[in-house]
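Summary for the lay section of the report: proteins are chains of building blocks that fold into shapes. Here we show the chain for Transmembrane protein and then a coded description of the shape we predicted for it.
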Amino acid sequence: MTSTPFPQGRTRAPGLMLLLLQVVAVLGLGLAAGYFHHRVDLLLEPVTAACGGPDPAARLRMAEVLMARAGALDDWQPLRWLPVAGMVLALLGAMAICVHWWHRVRRPLRTTALGLMALHASAMALAAWTLHLYEDAWNSVVRLSPTACLVDLTQQGRMPLEQAQEVVFHIFTRAHAPLQRNPDDLALVLVALLTAAMVGGVALWRAAAAEEGR
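The coded shape description reads as follows.
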């Protein structure tokens, strides 16, 4: 009989469900990251390269525009709970399936099921921290972007906003902390963790199916 990557039998339903939930978790993470970057793009959309130029009044108007846009984008805040809820429910469901398999399989595979459960729990903890960092990064961008426009860092006032923000971040944090990059780095780690969970889930699924066929 030809071996297939997705075994049949009584293990088919929980196996497919676990894989589907893991995919939903990855998609939820992608939505959360995309939502953050989309909000940042919308916030900084009206900013020119000179952030208002050398005229202090123009820079003040630009800062006011940024604050107004930040206030308008706050109305979108409830939308951020959609990917959060999707990720949490998907990972909880994946852990429930691991518990189901832990009760059904024999002792050698119970350790694998327990390890897979711990992997999903770690993914949930990392997801919570990543989403927290995304929200913290958003609040920092909202707070510091108008400041970057108001501070005249050059005599000509032609410093690009990105460079001005970097200097302002250094002033406020005493370190060149790339606020927007840190959660993205953690998100990549989380994707790798979820990918490992997918591989482990398929391996456990196949092992459980083989055990069932004996």
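Put simply, here is one thing we learned. Helices lie at 12-44, 56-73, 81-104, 107-150, 161-173, 181-212.
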